[in-house]
Request: fold
Amino acid sequence: MSQMIFYRLLALTLAGVLDQLLGDPRVAWHPICLIGNLISWTEKWTRPLFPQTKSGERLAGIYLVIFVLLIATAAPFAITLGLYRLHPVIGVLTESVLLYFTFAARSLERESMAVFYALESGGLDAGRKAVSMIVGRDTDELAETGVVKAAVETVAENTSDGVIAPICYALLGGAPLAYFYKAVNTMDSMVGYKNDRYRYYGTAAARLDDLVNLIPARLSALLIILAYEFVSIFHKSPEQSKGDGERSVRNESGYWQGVQKRSFTEVWCVYRRDCHAHASPNSAQTESVMAGALGVKLAGDASYFGVVHHKPTIGDDLRPVERADIARAVMLMKATAMLGWVLALIILAIFAMI
Reply:
């Protein structure tokens, strides 16, 4: 058992290195794309099998969840088991590549900063187009503050969904459990909408996604708070920077220029107050702590498929949202990812030595 834990430690380490070096590749044979194709194909054959009623569509959605999870979990389990038996080195290398496809820290950074650079170089229209690639809401009528908020909220939510949650499940069960999680998450993103098409069919996928993210979302929120404390060491508030001479140049020229440092207690209070200010039991966990750290107000009403959804706001309106908040959110995400990696590797190392 300790030997397999050591192999998982190596695989998880290599996967993290690959993610940071290469990011998520945009290829048709990407395993998550294949899971998406499996979901679409399964939807086509499950819908006709059941009556087009509320209970019928919900039952069809349950069949979708069961079938997709069986395939998405069994495939990496069989692959890794067979290759570990062939040779441990081959097994570790294969599992590290499989895990690499489940992590999204580098790609989240790249796609979110693309919104920032689009606003900087191309203006509002370019920013709307860039943010439309990473959010599900309507973006054609967004003001610049709406574009920035959408990007920051996406970074916050995906700090859990795309970074910490996959690490957690990889820690517990290697590639098979990581793909179990990604399959659930992908199903929710494809069929978990409350519109006419998926209101009942996507119920099972949406509920399961809520369940598997309960702990990772809360862990992610705590890690973001800790990450903010670490990041704060390397930047100072305007008052703190005065009189520091040459030592303050790097701080004042960075993305945190002009942002007042918030205390741990202030961020924690915003988190505790607003962590449930969302229809999802998990989404506001990371959004609230991100809003608290940045000192801005996020969320609020948003339009999806032409329908405006009224949502509560999250955070305090201490200052206007600005473009640099995207870069700040990405910085916090990266620091959170590093903390998550270190924590996971320490846990595996401890168990490997037992």
Q: What stands out?
A: Residues 24 and 101 are 7 Å apart (CA to CA). Residues 237-253 have pLDDT under 50 and may be disordered. The longest strand covers residues 297-299. Strands lie at 297-299, 302-304, 307-309, 313-315.
